[in-house]
Write a structure and sequence with these properties.
The chain has 355 residues and is an alpha/beta fold. It has helices spanning 16-25, 44-50, 74-90, 109-115, 119-122, 136-140, 148-157, 166-177, 191-202, 221-224, 277-291, 346-354; strands at residues 3-10, 32-37, 66-69, 98-102, 125-135, 180-184, 210-213, 264-271, 293-300, 307-314, 317-325, 334-341. It has two domains: 3-257, 3-Layer(aba) Sandwich (Rossmann fold), CATH 3.40.50; 262-354, CobW-like, C-terminal domain (Hypothetical Protein Yjia, Chain: A,domain 2), CATH 3.30.1220. Strand 9 and strand 10 (307-314) form a beta hairpin.
């Protein structure tokens, strides 16, 4: 019997990590192996999951339950990491009941689903379903929605944008590959508008794709796990804007490359202790507006506080909270990952934040 795997896709800041945390906290004895893939230099998502104190996130027999693929999207790194990672999970003495793969917010899900057809794993694991997490509030504000009105809004905000905006393609590819769509952050949108967004997005996806309204990723895992989609056998029905990038042989690992990543870049800024996080957030907001930064995430060392301070930002919205005490053996550092379109003025951003 094949082990089911669920792929969690969704744009930067949509709430994938929060969803995964909720899923692990409510696993009810099911052994879930989590594979996290990030776009960025700092293992922030992995730390956010491990820092939550969920039972099962800690090392088991010295073998990490949480596996991080840090150098780019999964389909870029399959030659070196994804396939060995999957084989290692499948060959464990006690294999997982379910594998959950949280993709990078910039990854296209279809090449990853395609990778499940490789002979090494095809007979042992199946893609139970692809779940797309949508930031409903962002869509409401005209972000990453492929319709004329929202593109016009984005054009007005940025002279460099046009109909070939890669963000649109990534967003749409994630929808087109999904078996279920979570309208996350639905509490931030009024009911009538939420219904409009549901209808707009439902018109873009394949037939019979289910939509669920949620906030803070609070969905019963039994709804998400057990879709029985066998997505790897249904690739033709999952259209992509980037098909020509992946028309090489399925088993030619070294050439699987997600060209959507060429449009983005990320870098890590290391700061000293931050005595005034409000002031830093105001500075980050200024940087977001000036430099078209898409995503900010990281941790701060607040002097006099025993807890680590998390910073997460998507567009102009920021969230900050203390997640766990600093460990005695870890250096207290402040580090932020900045993600944006290719061509970020790294030097100016770094100087401004360090100042």
């Amino acid at each position: 019997m094949k082990i089911p795997a669920t792929v969690i896709t969704g744009f930067l800041g949509a709430g994938k990590t929060t969803l995964v945390r909720h899923m692990l906290e409510n696993a009810k004895g099911k052994r879930i192996a989590l594979v996290i893939n990030e776009f960025g230099d700092l293992g922030v998502d992995r730390e956010m999951v491990k820092g939550c104190g969920i039972e099962g996130c800690e090392d088991e027999n010295g073998d990490d339950n949480v596996i991080e693929l840090a150098n780019g999207c999964i389909c870029c790194t399959v030659a070196d990491e994804f396939l060995p990672t999957m084989e290692a999970l499948l060959e464990r003495e006690t294999p997982p009941d379910h594998i959950v793969i949280e993709t990078s917010g910039l990854a296209l899900p279809k090449p990853l689903v395609k990778a499940f057809n490789w002979p090494e794993i095809k007979t042992r694991v199946t893609v139970d379903g692809v779940v797309a997490v949508i930031d409903t509030h962002a869509v409401d504000m005209g972000r990453f929605a492929d319709d004329e009105a929202s593109i016009q809004k984005m054009r007005e905000a940025d002279d460099n944008l046009d109909h070939d905006n890669p963000l649109e393609d990534v967003f749409e590819d994630q929808l087109l590959c999904a078996d279920m769509v979570l309208l996350n952050k639905s509490d931030l949108v009024d009911a009538d508008r939420l219904e409009e967004i549901n209808k707009e997005l439902a018109a873009k996806v394949r037939d019979h794709v289910k939509f669920i309204k949620t906030d803070f990723g609070r969905v019963d895992p039994t709804i998400l796990l057990g879709l029985d989609a066998a997505a790897e056998d249904d690739l033709d029905g999952r259209h992509s804007h980037h098909e020509h990038h992946h028309d090489d042989d399925d088993h030619d690992h070294d050439h699987h490359h997600d060209h959507s990543h060429d449009e983005f870049e990320s870098f890590c800024v290391t700061l000293g202790p931050v005595s005034d996080p409000d002031q830093l957030e105001a500075k980050l907001l200024e940087m977001v507006n000036t430099h078209d930064i898409l995503r900010v995430k990281g941790f701060l060392d607040i002097p006099g506080k025993p807890m680590r301070h998390v910073v997460q930002g998507v567009g102009p919205r920021f969230q900050r909270y203390f997640d766990r005490p600093w460990n005695a053996d870890e250096p207290r550092t402040s580090q932020l990952v900045i993600i944006g379109k290719h061509g970020l003025d790294r030097s100016t951003i770094e100087k401004s934040l360090v100042a």
